[in-house]
Amino acid sequence: MKKAVYAGTFDPITMGHLDVIERVARIFDFLYIGIAAEVKKQVLFSAEERYELVKETTKHLKNVEAHLFSGLLVEFVKSMEAKIIIRGLRALSDFEYEFEIASANKNLYPEVDTLFLLTSLEYSFLSSSLVKEVAMLGGSVEKWVPPVVDKKLRDKYKSISHE
Ligand code: COA
């Protein structure tokens, strides 16, 4: 059985991530989505909220399973008995960072390989930060995120503005 792991922060999941997930799910027998619980960057959604949104928006994909993970990505990959890490590449500017983490992961766990998928052109500009900024300023992000994420963003910014 060919298994792969697609990991990230998913704060929140966007159509760009879903595009990668749906395409990978057609290539591999099984895809585990690893949602990093603790990350260096400041997050808007809690680990539990990020996990729930990934779970909800991928429930139509029968060979995809979302998991929260803590600690090293390679340890999560090992625990899922997988050897492939999937990353999406949006632009040339992603390459340097991706090269660094793919090399570090290979060094930490030599059996692992990272496969890169080009993000579809229509989402190549997208990032979770961009979605959050536009939503925070009251702009529409409905083309960039699934409806459940759109609603969650609105609720979140409403509750923050009432604090
Ligand atoms: N569509 C839209 N956005 C995309 C995208 C796509 N196809 N691909 C990446 N992005 C965006 C993300 O939304 C994110 O945007 P943001 O910075 O505005 O939040 C950015 O690109 C990169 O984020 P992501 O893909 O989630 O990766 P990350 O850098 O946040 O997280 C981990 C990477 C979690 C996999 C990495 O930090 C990790 O492995 N952590 C575990 C600890 C560990 O093992 N560390 C050692 C690694 S060497």
From TrEMBL:
Cytidyltransferase-like domain boundaries: 5-133
E.C. number: 2.7.7.3
Protein's GO biological process: coenzyme A biosynthetic process
Required cofactor(s): Mg(2+)
Binding site for substrate: T9, K41, L73, R87
Family note: Belongs to the bacterial CoaD family.
Protein name: Phosphopantetheine adenylyltransferase
Gene assigned in the entry: coaD
